[in-house]
From TrEMBL:
Belongs to the two pore domain potassium channel (TC 1.A.1.8) family. It is a multi-pass membrane protein. Residues 97-154, 191-268 form the Potassium channel domain. The chain crosses the membrane at residues 21-42, 102-121, 133-156, 176-202, 214-231, 243-267. Residues 330-339 have a biased composition (Pro residues). It is found in: Apical cell membrane; Cell membrane; Cell projection, Dendrite; Cytoplasmic vesicle. This is Potassium channel subfamily K member 1. Homodimer; disulfide-linked. Heterodimer with KCNK2; disulfide-linked. In astrocytes, forms mostly heterodimeric potassium channels with KCNK2, with only a minor proportion of functional channels containing homodimeric KCNK1. Interacts with KCNK3 and KCNK9, forming functional heterodimeric channels. Interacts with GNG4. Identified in a complex with PSD and ARF6; interacts only with PSD that is bound to ARF6. Interacts with UBE2I. InterPro entries: 2pore_dom_K_chnl, 2pore_dom_K_chnl_TASK, 2pore_dom_K_chnl_TWIK, 2pore_dom_K_chnl_TWIK1, K_chnl_dom. Residues 298-310 have a biased composition (Polar residues). Glycans are attached at N93.
Length: 339
């Protein structure tokens, strides 16, 4: 009977998880449809205006230069667009910095292994395309390992900050409130140091960017979306362009690392982790939520448990067992009834 009851309970939990997943999946599809509708409503009028402006410019050009055939102009525009999509600009003079200098190539390699993939510069040769695929297959896992190792090391001072908040504010606030406060501090560090300050620097360096464009670039890059509409250092008269590209590469690696660290802090708060709602087995997740609500210290990641904590835990277990074995009650018959 107990086995049948356990099986029915597991089936109930499984159905509940699938039902929650179905609701979430339906809401996600609705979210995509809503986003598409908003983007279409906002951007479609702007696109029509740009198309009309380009058609007028082309018409004016043909009127002012009647010797140029329409088909020849069309072929020239196609070649320019194809070259621009491959990262080759027709407006740069011969003295401009090439796209495949060492600084530019290092910047391109970083966008490949971090999966940002701006797409503004792509390999032109067949050998370059083959090498890019092989390089990405090896480089992306190595980058994930490197970023994970950096996050693990940065979790040590991060957990120290959480412990300091608990020691200072534990008598005033609940553990969940302190964890949320800790998450807010991490988010402020990410936004201020890796979004707002770099955006101010980009706005000052890039001649055609305002502050909103710079914040947009930083956000799109650190979230690895990488649309490629704003690329630092692509101005024709950009001084120290290779050095500028290398500095931007360092910024991207540091920013993505702090972004992953902030996400690790967020995901370790069970009450905020929506992924726990769709787990098939809810025993561990519910236990984790209960421990977090009761004030138990759940460290971020298994590797953050210090040797001192492990030793204290071991000592506590040994002490409890020794008291039970060394001080039995008078009524305890002992193992197997032996007094």
């Amino acid at each position: 009977m107990l086995v049948l009851s356990s099986q029915k309970s597991n089936m109930t939990i499984t159905r509940r998880g699938f039902f929650r997943f179905f609701i979430f999946f339906s809401g996600y599809l609705l979210f995509l449809v809503l986003g598409a509708s908003v983007f279409s409503a906002i951007e479609a009028p702007e696109e029509k205006e740009k198309v009309a402006s380009l058609r007028k410019l082309r018409s004016d050009f043909l009127k002012n230069h009647p010797c140029v055939p329409d088909n020849d102009l069309e072929d020239l525009i196609k070649e320019i667009i194809q070259a621009s999509n491959r990262g080759v600009s027709a407006i740069k003079n011969a003295t401009g910095e090439p796209n495949w200098s060492f600084g530019q190539s290092l910047f391109f390699a970083s966008t490949v292994v971090t999966t940002i993939g701006y797409g503004h510069v792509t390999p032109l040769s067949r050998m370059g395309k083959i090498f890019c695929m092989v390089y990405a297959m090896v480089g992306i896992p190595l980058t994930l390992v490197l970023l994970s190792a950096l996050v693990e090391r940065l979790l040590v001072p991060t957990v120290g900050l959480l412990q300091w908040l608990n020691s200072r504010l534990g008598h005033l606030y609940q553990p969940l409130n302190i964890r949320i406060m800790h998450l807010i501090i991490m988010m402020l560090i990410l936004v201020c140091i890796f979004l707002l300050l770099p955006a101010a620097a980009f706005a000052a360096i890039e001649p055609e960017w305002d502050y909103l464009d710079s914040i947009y670039y930083c956000f799109i890059s650190l979230t690895t979306i990488g649309l490629g509409d704003y690329i630092p250092g692509d101005s024709a008269d950009q001084p120290y362009r290779p050095l500028y590209k290398i500095a931007t590469t360092c910024y991207l690696f540091m920013g993505i690392t702090i972004m992953m660290l902030t996400l690790a802090v967020f995901y370790d708060i069970p009450q905020l982790n929506l992924g726990l709602l769709f787990t098939v087995k809810e025993d561990n997740s519910s236990e984790k939520v209960r421990l977090a609500s009761s004030g138990q210290d759940l460290n971020y990641g298994a590797s953050t448990l210090t040797p001192q904590n492990e030793e204290n835990t071991h000592r506590q277990v040994v002490r409890v067992r020794s008291r039970r074995n060394d001080s039995p009650s008078p009524d305890d018959p002992g193992p197997k009834g032996i007094p």
